[in-house]
Amino acid sequence: MKLDNLLTDESATALAEDPGAVSSAARKVYVKTYGCQMNVYDSQRMTDALAADGYVATDVIEDADVVLLNTCHIREKAAEKVYSELGRIRDMKQERAEAGRELMIGVTGCVAQAEGREIIRRAPAVDLVVGPQTYHRLPEALRKARGGSKVVETDYALEDKFDHLPQPRRADVISRGVTAFLTVQEGCDKFCTFCVVPYTRGSEVSRPVAQIVAEAERLAEAGVREVTLLGQNVNAWHGVGPDGSEWGLGRLLFRLAEIPGLARLRYTTSHPRDMDDELIAAHRDLKALMPYLHLPVQSGSDRILKAMNRKHTADDYLRLIDRIRNARPDIAMSGDFIVGFPGETEADFDATVKLVEHVGYAQAFSFKYSPRPGTPGAEMKNQVEEAAKDERLQRLQALLMDQQATFATGLVGSIIEALIEKPGRQAGQIVGRSPWLQPVILDEKAGKIGDIVQVRIMRTGHSSLFAELA
Ligand code: 5AD
Ligand code: SF4
Fold it and tell me: Is residue 384 assigned to a domain?
C-alpha cells in the first residue's frame, strides 16, 4: 500500500490553488514537490511567500512563468529524477525564449542544499538554487534572477526562516483541505551513517511553542480537522512553555489537543531514542492523538544498528514498542527499513526479518541502501552487491505487504471513525481516512468533507477500505 501523503520520493506532488480565480496578468508559479512531507509543507510556504510578490500558483506547468522543483536528496534515485525533469523543462524554456516569453527555473530543497552551484553547471538553464533554510529569501532571489543573474542561496540562514515566512492565508488553508501539515522541527543531530539529512537540513532546530500554537489555531479556524506535526526528528522537538518550563513533544501535543476543532493529531518522523514518558503518556491519554506511530528502526541486527550509529539495539526498540502498546493497545506501528547497508550479511538480514515478524507492522517503507556522497556509509569498504540488495528487498517487502494486508483484513466488520477528506474518484463516492491512515471509500451520502463519521468496514480494496455508515 502506498498512501499519497506519506514519505515517498517516488511520487511527486504538484501543488496548486485555484488557477481560475486569478487575473490573467498575474505571474504564475508551478511548484513540483519531491520527497517527504516536510517538502510538501515547504512548497506551500514558498507559494505563500511568493504570493506577497504577486505570484499565484498554477498546477499547469505550461502556464507557469516560474517553475520550482522542490527536491529530495535522500537516495540517489530521488536526486537523479530532478535532472531528468530539468532536461524537459529546459526544452520548454527554449521554446518560450523563441516566442519571446520568459520562463524562470528554480531548484529548491535538499538537492539545492547538497549540490548548490553544481546544479547550474550541470543544468545551465537553471536560474536560481535556494536551500531549505532560506525560503524566506526566495522572493528576493527570484527578483535578482529575473534581473539576469544566476542566484545560489544555500547558506544556513542566521535568522529563523519561520520567523519570516508568512503564515498560511485562510483562503489557501481552505483550498488545501481539512488535513494539514505543520513543521515544528527541522534538521537532525543524530548522524546516522547512511543519512544526508544532517548535511542538507542542518542541525536540529525547534520552532517556538507560541508560533506553533498560533499556526495550529489558524488552521483550525479555517476548518482543518487534522494536523500532522512534522520534523526530520520530530520527537526531538523541545521548547519552553508559557510558564517557563521545558516542554517536549508530548507536552506540546497535550496543548494542541485543547484547540477547538482540531479532532486529530499526528506526528512524524520519530527516532526511537526520543520517545520519552510524556510522549507515551500522550498516546495513552489523548483521544485526538491517532493510534498510529511511524517509528523507523532501519535494521533488526545489532551489528548493523551499531554501524549505522543508531545508538540503540533491536531489543531496546522492541521493549519500547511494548511500553507504547501497553499505553495504547490499539496503536498501529509503521517503520522504515534499509536493506544492504555496508557489511550486512544474510544473518543480519534474517535478524531484520525476525524483528518485523515480532512487531507486526500495519505499514512500512523499505529501501535498498543508497550510498550518499559525504556520509560515512558511502566510504565503507564492505558495500553489499546490488543482487543481494534486490533479493533482500523483495523478501522484506513481501513480508511487510503480508502484514499490511493482515492488518487491513483484521478491520473488516469493525466500526471505526473516518475523517471525510475529499470526493472519490468515482461518482457518488467520498473518501475518508481511518485512524491508521488508510483511505476509506464511502457513499457520498455518508457525510460532508470535514465530518468524522462512524463507519463499518465491509471489505478491503487494493490499498483502501470500503465502508458503510454505521
Ligand atoms: N539509502 C536508503 N535509504 C535511506 N533512507 C535514508 N537514507 C537512506 C539511504 N542512504 C531511508 C531511511 C529513512 C527514510 C526516510 O529513508 O529508512 O528512515
Ligand atoms: Fe528527502 Fe530528507 Fe530532504 Fe525530506 S529532508 S526531502 S526525505 S532528503
Answer: no
Cβ neighbours of 140 (radius 10 Å):
14
Which residue has the CA at smallest separation from atom 7 of ligand 2? 36
**pLDDT for 450:** 97
Residue 400 in any domain: the answer is no
Note the ligand closest to the C-alpha atom of 202: 2
Question: What does the pLDDT look like over 419-440, one tens digit per residue?
Answer: 999 999 999 999 999 999 999 9
What is the number of domains present in the chain?
Answer: 2
Indicate the top mutation candidate among 8, 72, 76, 194 to test ligand 2's pocket, ranked by most ligand atoms within 8 A of CB.
Answer: 72
Q: Give the structural domain span for 53.
A: 3-161
> What predicted TM-score, i.e. pTM, was given to this entire model?
0.92
pLDDT computed for residue 158 by the predictor: 63
Take atom 9 of ligand 1 and give the residue whose Cα is closest: 370
CATH number assigned to the domain comprising residue 35: 3.40.50.12160
The model's pLDDT over 169-192, given as tens digits with 9 standing for 90+, comes to: 888 888 889 999 999 999 999 999
